[in-house]
Each structure stands twice: as structure tokens, then as C-alpha cells.
Amino acid sequence: MKARFIIAIMIFLLLPITVYSEETSPIDRLDQLSDDALQMVKLHRYEDAKKLLDYFSDQFRVVSERKRPLSTDELRIVTISHDEAVQATANTTIDHNEKINRVTKFRLVMDAITSQNQPLWTEMESPIMTVFGEMKEAVYSGDKEHFYTNLNAFLSLYDVIYPSMKINVDVERIQKIDTRIDYINRYRPQVLADEANQQEIEALEADLQLLFDEMSGDEADPSLWWVIISTGSIIILTLSYVGWRKYKGDRQKEKNRSRGQK
């Protein structure tokens, strides 16, 4: 069983014990607001989404003034992605899919800030790598139309996760990937026609796959195993105690019933 799954089960079982002992942090509440706004957009409730985003802005200002929980770069990324989301919900000329893309971008940014492991943007691996594979196939078959179409689709998807990637990934690594993408996009005809230039496609695919693999690894950090073991012990003790209390209660009821019959 995957370590992450074990941890999730343990946390779920402990929720009745711990959920009320710790208050949700302000930044987590902001993260939830971003998710709520995205759900409203999916339901075509754009006005409600904008109200949530406006409320987010007010709350974000309060949190930033009080605690300064974000770095300068994170603050800039959140602000830009939030502004794009607000504009998308307010602009009637923007179609539904583009609204979803822009608000999703903002949602992924907030999650990237709050998530310690496997941020949501890594869930975009499948659509991104699928489109990339079709793009590469079009290159090798010399199909210009499909190459351009799939490249544009890839660029659109990459744009959605790009701000959140910048929060979780080293600058040097982002720049390396950006350089390859910019080259392929700028020199489309050459990439399509020249085998030497097509090596950039292979290199970019390897870079992206490695990034997704590392960011969404299934194995838990070795330092977390003590948490798994100790949490498991707590669960066993808790369930044992509950069982013992239930047993004692049933015995007492049985004694009281016997006395009543005498």
C-alpha cells in the first residue's frame, strides 16, 4: 500500500479527535475561497464567483497586513493570478472554458502555497503529457496542422500551471524548461522539418516527465515514517479504549437488567 494512502487513512481516522483542536489557518481559508470560486465558475455562476474573489481580496489584504505569510514573489504571483480570475468572471466576452482556465490558474496558485507535498498542479500531468505526445507524433509524421494545433493546446495547458510551478520549483529548472518551450514555439517550421531541432522535443518531454515524477512521488519521506508509526499506535490505542468502554457499558447494562428482574 502506498505510503501516502496510509497517511491519508490515518488522518481520516483521527479527524474526530483532532479536527476541533486546531483552528484552520487564515491562509488555508483563503485557499478554500479560491476553490469555492472555481466551483461557482464551473456552474456558470460567474457573479457568485466574482463576489467570492472580491471577498478573497479583502481577506487577503488583512492577512498580508497582519502576518506577511508570503514572500514577495508569492505575493506577486497571487496578485496577478487573482486579477486575471476577477477579470475572467466579470468579462462577458470571455467564453466559459477560458473563465475556467483563468480561475483554475488562481486556484492552483493558492494550493501550491498551502500544499507541502504533491500540489494540485501535478494532477495536470495526464492532459499535458497526452497533448505533448500527440504533438511529438505529429512532428515525426510531418503533419504541420496537427503539430501546430497540439503545440498551441500544450502552451495553453502549460500556461495554467505555470504560476503555481514557479512557487514549488527552482527558478533554474523553470528557466531551463521555458527556454526549450520558447525555442520550439519560436522555430516551429524548423522543428517540424529538421531532425536535429526535433531533439528539443525529446529533451523537453524528458524534463517535464522528470519534473512531474519528482513532484508527485508516491513514497513518503523517510522522516515521516515515525509519524506513520506513532499515528498508527494512537489509532490502535484509541480503538482499543473505545472498545473497552463499550464492553464495560454493555456489562453494566446487563447487571442493571439482572437486578431489575430480581
From TrEMBL:
Pfam families: Spore_YpjB (PF09577). This is Sporulation protein YpjB. The keyword Transmembrane applies. It comes from Cytobacillus mangrovibacter. Keywords: Membrane, Transmembrane, Transmembrane helix. InterPro entries: Spore_YpjB. The chain crosses the membrane at residues 224-244.
